[in-house]
Amino acid sequence: MFMDKSQRNYFDFTLLLLIFLFMIVSCIAIYSAQKYSPYGINFAARQAVWYAAGFGVSAFVYFFDFDQIKKISPYAYVFGVLVLIALFLAPDSIAPETKGAKAWFEIPKFGSLQPSEFMKLFLIIFLARVISNHNEAYLDRTFQTDLKLLGKISAVAVLPLAFILVQPDAGTAMAVAAIVIGMTFISGINWRIIAVLGGIAAFILASLVAIYLKAPDLLLLVLDPYQLNRIHSWLDPFEDMQNSSYQLAYSILAIGSGTMYGKGFNAAQVNVPEAHSDFIFTIIGEEFGFFGASLVISLYFILIYRIIVIALRNKGPYESLIATGVISVLTFHIFENIGMVIGLVPITGIPLPLLSYGGSSLLGTLLSLSLVLNISAKTKKYMFSEDD
What we know:
12 helices; 2 strands; 65% helix; membrane; Cell_cycle_FtsW-rel_CS; lipid-linked peptidoglycan transporter activity; FtsW/RodA; cell shape
């Protein structure tokens, strides 16, 4: 094909506009949520600062060429794993246990930093390199080459997954698994292999459900009591709503009390713990009702749709794999977070992308989206292409 002389790019201004809309919604919702916070901190102002910092860092990353990103991806991956190991070995003075997990570094005058949030991005760019390089080396696909690729993907994923699980942080571990599954699905591996793996996963899940129904105490071999109690409270949140299921029960009550149009800005009456962070969607549901919650969910649908369009429009396999990884992790986070606050899935303690308060989560998400914007801008217009 011949490149059009204009070399038009497709910078996705819609995606950029969506990010700004999420920033506005986030700061408004956090401002309402913080009135019940026991910390005495202006989280809305801090979130605005984190957004500004995220835009600054993302602007720097945006100008990287993807050949450069591909070259540095192994170093970024190794750095991320080493930081996770350092977190595991760090003393409580710099990495204290919070809410039963050792997942954050405490940095004086800065706050906390969660390495696993950045590890997800490092995993995406390195896994995209591993898959694209393998596919370039083995143009004639066979069962053996597909198994070899599956082995490479597993080898890359096992270290970050293991160190995130020992924190323990089951929610982030599932997000990492979502990245691996999504990128494996479009890696070109034979669908029969993927079907077998899916069948094995379904069998394991069904076995765990059967064990829970027949002998739940056996799950203590792989889960701690706190995690098992979360499953109990998820299945019946109103049985012990003043103790283990307090957060979920009041989350459901808060969203339900919003009815169709909500109680109005800053008029929330139900006190849900950590509403400014993982449970920010309860504030949206209570103050703006079904209508406001539906608008937020629609914004997420448009966000994912725009990334899919960018992934399909782009001509490079490495860039498309990166976009797929971003789609996978965002989709999982959105479904899991909204699902857990309405009682659809168990609580895992993962944030709602772009809305929940949290510097590490917000920076990681903005960096991921900056790569997608980079992909959109680097996509060229070709004569006689399918887009014409």
